[in-house]
Write a structure and sequence with these properties.
Blueprint: E1 8-12, H1 17-28, E2 32-37, E3 48-52, H2 58-72, E4 77-80, H3 95-123, E5 126-131, H4 134-137, H5 144-164, E6 169-176, H6 185-188, H7 191-199, H8 209-220, E7 231-234
Parallel strand pairs: 1-2, 1-4, 2-3, 4-5, 5-6, 6-7
Helix pairs in contact: 1-8, 2-3, 3-5
The protein binds NADP nicotinamide-adenine-dinucleotide phosphate.
Length: 247
């Protein structure tokens, strides 16, 4: 049985999709959430404190973490769900779009980690889960800025795990496949696109945000006490199977 009893986690991107499901799951398992997003419905109680913070600003993140620590009196880790979808190939992507993808997805993840590390080091323990993607593990066409940002998150995760294992801080990533969230509504709203994505997943359906949140909760919990520098795909078999049977 996974428990997050009495543990407090920062969740970025907590206002939507996988981040919102993660916040719910942490609370269901007995934990507390400092929820960060660009714009977030206000909440301040014994289970969750919501704060607006853009992950591209280290000072905004540090201020939010400090307020969260003051509210709950503790901090045990971080889940970095804030992210944007940035499709395009190299010729069709301008420099600003490329920079945005890296600024939010990759640098935003790095800054989020940077904002919690001093507290976790001081507490001599912590668990961090970054959200990458199957497209950080595999190539695909017309998605270069996103793919590169997610591949960077996987390497960032392994580097963080190496640097902070001595402080008893575990750092792992989750790589979701096609998950039904507001980010993928552009796909689900168009039946042929939805079918194309579903057909690439051996389980032949989209994943649900709660299914990703459960894997995240496992990695945050003491049940994963000897797991660090790992990446768990939550993708219905997408990254592990290339079937020879068609249909
Ligand atoms: P989502 O529903 O769009 O949620 C992402 C959240 O991040 C939104 O609330 C968004 O706010 C927030 N955000 C974006 N930029 C931010 C910034 N600069 N600072 C703070 N918050 C920011 O998407 P999701 O599907 O849950 O995605 C969560 C993570 O999973 C992302 O990193 C995504 O790349 C990854 N992922 C998703 C899938 C999938 O199929 N859904 C698959 C693989 C990986 P706004 O609404 O204001 O933009």
């Amino acid at each position: 049985m996974i428990s997050l009893h009495d543990k407090t986690f920062v969740v970025t991107g907590a206002g939507s999709g996988i981040g919102a499901a993660t916040a719910e799951q942490i609370i269901r398992l007995g934990g507390r959430v400092i929820g960060l997003d660009r714009t977030l419905a206000s909440r301040k109680d014994s289970q969750q404190l919501n704060l607006n913070a853009d992950v591209t600003s280290l000072s905004a993140l540090e201020e939010a973490v400090s307020q969260g620590k003051a509210h709950f009196g503790a901090l045990d880790g971080l889940v970095t769900c804030a992210g944007i979808s940035v499709p395009g190939d190299t010729l069709t992507t301008d420099e600003d779009t490329w920079n945005d993808a890296l600024a939010v997805n990759l640098t935003g993840t790095w800054l989020s980690v940077k904002s919690v590390l001093p507290e976790l080091i001081q507490q001599k323990q912590g668990a961090i889960v970054t959200i990458a993607s199957v497209y950080g593990m595999l190539g695909c066409s017309a998605n270069t800025p996103y793919n590169v940002s997610k591949g960077g998150i996987l390497q960032l995760t392994r580097s963080l795990a190496a640097d902070y294992a001595a402080h008893n801080i575990r750092v792992n990533s989750i790589s979701p496949g096609y998950i039904a969230t507001p980010m993928t509504e552009v796909i689900s709203a168009f039946e042929p696109a939805e079918q194309a994505f579903v057909s690439m997943h051996p389980m032949k359906r989209p994943g649900q945000p709660a299914e990703v949140a459960t894997a995240i909760a496992f990695l945050l919990s003491d049940a994963a006490s000897f797991i660090t520098a790992a990446n768990i795909p939550v993708d219905g078999g997408f990254s592990g199977v290339k079937d020879i049977l068609v249909g």
